[in-house]
Amino acid sequence: MSLLEDPIATAGLVAREVRTGSRDGATTRIAVARRTYPTDRADLWDALTSADRLPRWFLPVEGELKPGGRYQLVGNAGGVIEECDEPRRLAVTWEMGPLVSWLEVNLTDAGAGTVLELVHEAPVDPQFWTEYGPGAVGVGWDLTLMGLGLHIESGAAVDPEVGAAFPTTPEGREFARAAATAWARAATADGDDPAAAQAAGERTFAFYTGVPEDGTES
């Protein structure tokens, strides 16, 4: 079963940007993804924050879902809800084991739709960045934003098993290739060496799809 008729065009719905920042004196890198959805802010906000709707396109969520409370995405990240300005801005810490980063989502009106801007800021691990670049988090968010788009457009839930298997399908590999390449271009625009950024994008593609870096399949 294919989730997308045109995976490259769907990957192209996301505008990507990489920035360099700092927190508490430590250098951070910031992955920014923007996509416009054909719905109003109230509906998109509900899809992003409702414990009933999140599992329909992302993951079940538990915890105290209000500012200052802790949330936990089942089987994934958890953290503290730092800001919740309905229906405009959500800011949380993004904690995976000992690793802490920061995630914010901003919604703005755009004609008949709504622009979602996702900003993920993380401390720099030079070795990890050299290995994978921004695509390590970026391609994961691309897949998440794709699932949100399918849900918004159809109103239906995305089958979790189909979604999990998607990156290993021919359409999923096309999508991941386009997304990883775009994140490599964004890293280059922020000052990374183009060849190193492209190589990191290839390793990111291989990580998400299980396809070796030379593009062959076992």
Overall radius of gyration: 17 Å
Structural class: alpha+beta
H/E element order: HEEHHEEEEEEHHHHH
Indicate the percent of residues in helices. 25-40%
Q: Mind describing the biggest β-sheet?
A: 8 strands, antiparallel
* Mean pLDDT over the full residue set: 94
The oligomerization state is single chain
Poorly predicted runs are none
In the sheet with the most strands, the strands line up as 1-2-8-7-6-5-4-3
Total strands: 8
Distance between the termini: 21 Å
- Principal-axis shape equals globular
Separate helix tally: 8
Roughly what fraction of the amino acids lie in strands?
Answer: 25-35%
Compact description:
By secondary structure, the protein is an alpha+beta fold.
Written overview of the protein:
The chain is built from eight helices and eight strands. The longest helix is centred in the middle third of the chain and has 20 residues, at 135-154. It has helices spanning 7-11, 41-49, 54-57, 126-132, 135-154, 160-165, 170-189, 194-209; strands at 15-23, 26-37, 61-63, 70-73, 78-85, 89-96, 99-110, 113-123. The chain is of the alpha+beta class. Helix 4 (126-132) packs across helix 8 and helix 7 (170-189) runs antiparallel to helix 8. It starts with 6 loop residues before the first helix and ends in a 9-residue tail after the last helix.
Topology:
Layout: H1 7-11, E1 15-23, E2 26-37, H2 41-49, H3 54-57, E3 61-63, E4 70-73, E5 78-85, E6 89-96, E7 99-110, E8 113-123, H4 126-132, H5 135-154, H6 160-165, H7 170-189, H8 194-209
Antiparallel strand pairs: 1-2, 2-8, 3-4, 4-5, 5-6, 6-7, 7-8
